[in-house]
Write a structure and sequence with these properties.
Structural class: alpha/beta
Bound molecules: nicotinamide-adenine-dinucleotide
Helix content: 25-40%
Strand content: 15-25%
Number of helices: 14
Distance between the termini: 57 Å
Radius of gyration: 23 Å
Shape: globular
Length: about 500
């Protein structure tokens, strides 16, 4: 099996054929009626909801049951029952179980990737890379607790008969709520970090991709993770709210800023504050200076803006370009964009699949109208004649400064290009949004790059990245921390500070 990330590697013929066979099968059969996983058992409770196939909207991709308050309460209860034993299990044994799940996933890459394409519309390269990311997230977090030897350290003592240590301990039960765009990797990332740290988990994945997330439950069962350590409940916002309102000890959430901030607020109410680890949206800029290689910049911006149809939290949605190279950049970005193929994910020549749902199509149409009225469409703006939620990758120039299309997260293949006088103004414009997730710069000048890294308000930053101006972070290679409205803790996923966020400190003084 070829190893792919979001920015490197290509498929071999065997992987291609295996993926295509699995996609045809998944599309023909759809999912079974997915139940919840509670205490190691599948529970068929609640109304069935259907997830349509966004690439062929007259087809159903998956069916799952909506968890009600009773189902959520049972799942949280199961997680509470399992937490003491799991907490007391040595971390090496916990890691062994999680790594066994990773091996199971490794043996099912084409099948899981096909389900991801079916439910989310992502292309084969994106889908296979997402499965690989899930595997690498487990390995990264297992390695972190090993590198830190379980996060227990000796402290100073002032007398011979006193021994002082400090240790990080799990909170207990974490509720985990996932987004639609990386329904496999991010549910794995949040859940596995919580479990590596010794917590038990109730996961509620996105209602747009229940089947993708259910494959993780299958991996956990196949790995022999003890009953109750990992539980999964399906459903939409109502199920999410129930989980947030339940007596969990903390929530890990990835999704929109609006929902994430409401969850954080809720967890700060009540008799005491509980941890809310929230990773949220972005409005990610790429700056192009007068000293940029403009070909590199145009390609890097297009790849970051239109990969996964602009539905990555790290997608580039704003190009901010110094006036000396503005016209050249606009022309090259437009040209590169017009060369990108929109098509069904099963077609190996598609660069973009559909967007996730009808609401996103409506948001696209509204943005195109506003762009026509207040700016200029450089490329795209239309809808291909295909039987799903397809929209064209779109480049918009000449909007007035501060226009809403340059401030709000749109989450679709839509990038604005703003002209500025110099780097100073470019950084000001880049920072003029509430978000602070990813940012890129194209410049061949080291001093300019240093100025950018020092002043940019973003947690994930890149210079001269042709493969994706603002996208493509990978576990252990980049950390992934949202600043401002893109996160709440000042520490992110993928890197060395993630697992400890699922733990709290205890110092132990023993006098003999
Ligand atoms: P969303 O906020 O609409 O939904 C995310 C999850 O929250 C879903 O499971 C949903 O059912 C649940 N939910 C919705 N309302 C809820 C409520 N009131 N209480 C509890 N749960 C609720 O986000 P989405 O559309 O699935 O995902 C796209 C968003 O996620 C974008 O804003 C994107 O930038 C962000 N995102 C961020 C990161 C990151 O790492 N920072 C990664 C991926 C996606």
């Amino acid at each position: 099996m070829t190893r792919l990330t979001y920015t490197s590697g290509s498929l071999d013929a065997d992987t291609d054929a295996a993926y295509e066979a699995e996609l045809a099968k998944a599309r023909a059969e759809g999912s079974p009626e997915l139940g919840h996983w509670i205490a190691g058992e599948e529970v068929a409770a609640g109304e069935v909801f259907e997830r349509e196939n966004p690439s062929f909207t007259d087809e159903i991709a998956s069916r799952a049951r909506e968890a009600d308050a009773d189902v959520i309460a049972k799942a949280v209860e199961a997680a509470k029952d399992a937490r003491v034993e799991w907490r007391r299990t040595p971390y090496a044994e916990r890691n062994a179980k999680l790594r066994a799940a990773a091996r199971w996933i490794e043996e099912h890459v084409p099948e899981i990737a096909a389900i991801l394409s079916l439910e989310t519309g992502k292309t084969r390269i994106e889908a296979i890379a997402e499965v690989q990311e899930g595997i690498d997230l487990i390995e990264t977090y297992c390695s972190e607790i090993e590198r830190n030897d379980g996060y227990t350290h000796p402290l100073k003592s002032f007398s011979d008969n006193e021994r002082n240590t400090e240790t990080l301990r799990p909170y207990g039960v974490f509720g985990v709520i996932g987004p639609f765009n990386f329904p496999f990797a991010l549910c794995i990332g949040m859940s596995s970090a919580a479990m590596v740290a010794g917590n038990t988990v109730v996961l509620k994945p996105s209602e747009e991709a229940p089947w993708s997330a259910a494959k993780f439950a299958e991996a956990m069962n196949a790995a022999g993770v003890p009953a109750g350590v990992f539980n999964l409940v399906h459903g939409g916002p109502e199920a999410g709210k129930e989980l947030v309102d339940s007596p969990v000890d903390g929530i890990a959430f990835t999704g929109s800023a609006e929902v994430g901030r409401a969850i954080a607020k809720r967890l700060h109410e009540g008799p005491y504050t509980r941890p809310a680890l929230t990773e949220m949206g972005g409005k990610n800029p790429a700056i192009v200076t007068a000293n940029a290689d403009v070909d590199k910049a145009a390609e890097g911006i297009a790849r970051a803006a239109f990969g996964l149809s602009g539905q990555k939290c790290s997608a580039c949605s704003r190009a901010i370009v110094v006036e000396d190279v503005y016209d050249e950049l606009v022309e090259k970005l437009g040209e590169f964009t017009r060369g990108l193929k929109v098509g069904e994910p099963g077609d190996p020549t598609s660069f973009l699949g559909p967007v996730i749902n009808e609401k996103t199509v409506a948001r696209f149409e509204d943005a195109v109208e506003a762009a026509k009225a207040d700016g200029r469409i450089v490329a795209g703006g239309g809808r291909p004649d295909l039987p799903g939620y397809y929209v064209e990758p779109t480049v918009v120039g000449d909007l007035p400064r501060g226009h809403r299309l340059t401030r709000d997260e749109l989450f679709m293949p839509f990038v604005t290009v703003t002209k500025v006088a110099d780097l100073d103004e470019a950084i000001e414009e880049a920072n003029a949004v509430v978000y602070g997730l990813t940012a890129g710069i194209f410049t061949e000048d080291d001093a300019e790059a240093e100025e950018f890294f020092d002043r940019i308000e973003a947690g994930i930053t890149y210079r001269n990245r042709r493969a994706g101006a603002t996208t493509g972070a990978w576990p252990g290679t980049q950390s992934f921390c949202g600043w401002k409205s893109s996160g709440t803790t000042g520490k992110g996923g993928l890197g060395p500070h993630y697992v400890p966020q699922f733990m709290r400190e205890q110092s132990r003084t023993v006098v003999s």
